[in-house]
Amino acid sequence: MFQVPGESSYIIRSLSSCVAKIAKPDAKESTAGGIGFIKILQYSGSLTMPPCTEGVTFLILHDPLDFRVSDLNSIKNVVKFKSWDI
């Protein structure tokens, strides 16, 4: 789903300017021009465990999203998800 190193993709570039501003829960920030999801297939569904009623939006990519290492590190500082370590 992601490819590092590379030049950050259109979605990552649109998010990179506001990542630090949304580090705290419930923080909100808008991006200039919005986020370009046009190349991503989206569909609604639910989790596969009962009661299977949780709303989930699945995002399907045709090609991996490219990341610059600096953009990946700024997102890691906010998300703090260990499997992102490289």
Secondary structure layout plus pairing:
Elements (H helix, E strand, L loop, with lengths): L1 E2 L6 H7 L23 E6 L10 E6 L3 E2 L2 H11 L7
Parallel strand pairs: 1-4
Antiparallel strand pairs: 2-3
Describe the structure.
With 86 residues, the protein is of the alpha+beta class. It has two helices and four strands; from the N terminus they run βαβββα. It has helices at 10-16, 69-79; strands at 2-3, 40-45, 56-61, 65-66. The strands form two sheets. A two-stranded parallel ribbon has the order 1-4. The longest helix has 11 residues, at 69-79. The protein is globular, with a radius of gyration of 15 Å. The model has no long low-confidence stretch (mean pLDDT 77).
Features:
single chain, alpha+beta, 2 helices, globular
Please identify the structural class as seen in this structure. Answer: alpha+beta
Radius of gyration: 15 Å
Q: Which band does the percent of strand residues land in? A: 15-25%
Unreliable parts = none
Mean pLDDT: 77
What is the string of SSEs from the N terminus onward?
Answer: EHEEEH
How many strand units? 4
Strand order of the largest sheet: 1-4
Question: How far apart are the first and last residues' alpha carbons, in Å?
Answer: 15 Å
Q: Number of helical runs?
A: 2
Largest sheet: 2 strands, parallel
Please outline what is shown here.
The protein has 86 residues and is an alpha+beta fold. It has helices spanning 10-16, 69-79, and strands spanning 2-3, 40-45, 56-61, 65-66. The longest helix is centred in the last third of the chain and has 11 residues, at 69-79.
